[in-house]
Structure formats: C-alpha cells, structure tokens
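Meet our chain:
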Amino acid sequence: MDRVGWGIVGAGGIAKRRMIPALLKEEHSEIIAVMKRHNPETLAKEFGIPFATDRLEDILSHDDIDAIYIATPVHLHKEEVIRAAEAGKHILCEKPLALNARDAEEMVAACKRHGVKFQVAFMMHYHGAHRKIAELIKAGKIGKPVYARAQLSCWYPPIEGAWRQIPDLGGGGSLIDMAPHLYDLLETFLGPIHKVLALTGNLVQNYPVEDSATTILQFESGVQATVDTFFNIPDEASKTRLEIYGSKGAILTEGTMGQDPGGSVEVLFKEEDSGYDPMQNKGDTARFVPLDYEKRDLFLEEAKAFVDALIEDKPIIENSGESGIHSMRIVDAVYLSARSGCFQEV
C-alpha cells in the first residue's frame, strides 16, 4: 500500500473543522467518501469528496476505501468499529472510545480478530508543546515530579438533541467528554494512574449529565494530580492550563490543551537546592522563562502517524486500541468513585 483511501463516518464539528482538512493535506491520503446522516452531499461538495452517502454499508463495501475515520456520537462507536473490522477496514476512532471499558474491549478484540489496525484519536499527544514537555520531564529537568493539574472546561448550555447531554448517547457529561484527553496526557508525562477519587454534579446546567467534574489522581510513581472538566465555565474564562511541578522546578502551559497548535509554555528549572526561605517571597524569586516549541497541526500529525503504520505495515504503538481500553477503565473507575465517594483503583 502506498496510498490510503479514506471513508469519513460521521461529519460533525470535529471532522468538518479538523480531520477532513488534515486528511486533504496528508500526502499519502485520499478521501474517497463521506457518510453523514443529514445532507452528506453538501459536505462532499464543500470539500471536493467524490462520494456521499447516509448509509454505513456504502462506506464499508467501497473497494477503494482502506481506512475509516469514525467521528459519530459515542453510543454508535461499538457497532461501527466492529462492522468496519469485519469489512477489513482499518480504523481511526474518536474518543471517548466507547460508553464503557467492556464495549471497548469488544471493539479492540474485533479489530485483532480481523487483522485491522486500530488507533484512538488522542490528538493532544501530537501537540508540539506536549512533545517537548515529555522530553524535559524524561530528562529530569524538573527533578522528581510530584504534582500536576490539567484543566479543560468550556461553556456548554442545554441544546435540544445534543447527544453529549443525553446519558445513553454520550455515556456522561463533562467528565467522559473531556477528561480522557487529560488522563491520557498526564499518563504520557507521569506514567500509569493507580487510583482515582472524583466529584461530579450539576452546578449550572440542568441537563441529565454532569456539568462539573473534578478528579484526584494518584499515579503508580506516587505523583498526585487533579483534573478539572466543567461545562459551565465561560470559554473566555477557561485558560486550559497544564501545570507540572517537580522537586527542581515546574512547567506551566496555557492554551495547549485543545484543538489548536498554539498556546504558551513557561518553565523554571533549578540546578541546585537553594535552601529553605523562611520569608517565602515567591513573587520576587520565581523566574519563569518562555519555552519555544515546534508548532504542528495536531490532526495532521495524528493522521500521518496512522497512515505511516498502514503504509509500512507496522503496529500502532501510540494511541493503540489497548490504550483506548485503558482510558475507558479509568473513566469507569472515576464514575464509580463519584457514585461511591471512595477511591477506586484502575
């Protein structure tokens, strides 16, 4: 295989804004067809896609399609992935992977059974800042990591028919929709999560899924972290901050946890212990400096990684099906913790 023919399954916001434009730029990719429930022809015409349909069968039976990108509501993922695997199509699937870990296990098992490659769309892995941060932590620049915080919140008011606001369609609210990105990213920096404690609730929005979620994490290394994901904070007020602290410094970002390649990073590294300061003059002593990093299209890099694996016939290492199962096990444990009020092991 020297070129990958794509079928797009589900062409809502994330596909239209991000993945379709990325695949049109990916040099070894060609979008053959798009499937959308309503007006697929309009979308196909907009992007110059040759074939449009509202039936999954048309995508799966198309001989020129090698891989499909799934960006439908979460409750549809299981059936679509299994059917695509049975049709011999390789799969790039949006997160959250499924409604629960059990469904995710069935999806990954089907892909293995039919010999197709499967990747979960955790695109934040490919942000230039996050790549650089992983290198710095591995190199010991902040010493021993001790604490992290990841924030991803937005304003998401009640919208009639919005699947993210219906429990059976999305699996939950702000937690399952946004926190998997942050759990996954923090594990990239800090290793596996060991146990979780969570609070969820509805503080502003009146739909039947949570609009508020805070998770306390303990990693196998002992590092502690918090993740906050809310659907009730104005977009202008949510800075999507990432903070990682260690025994020799810290890395702070703003605006890197999202769909854009931008954002800012500042760092403080200390080579030696300066001793205890009884005055605690933090405002006078903290000397953070900006960190440069390579700007990159997250979705294009994500697509390239998947396409390279297909063309070179190599296994999916980053964002594999197994990582998707693991992500859903974390989500299941977090929701169980929120219900029970107790720590849960992952």
The first strand starts at residue 4 and ends at 9. The domain at 127-297+329-345 is CATH 3.30.360.10 (Dihydrodipicolinate Reductase; domain 2).
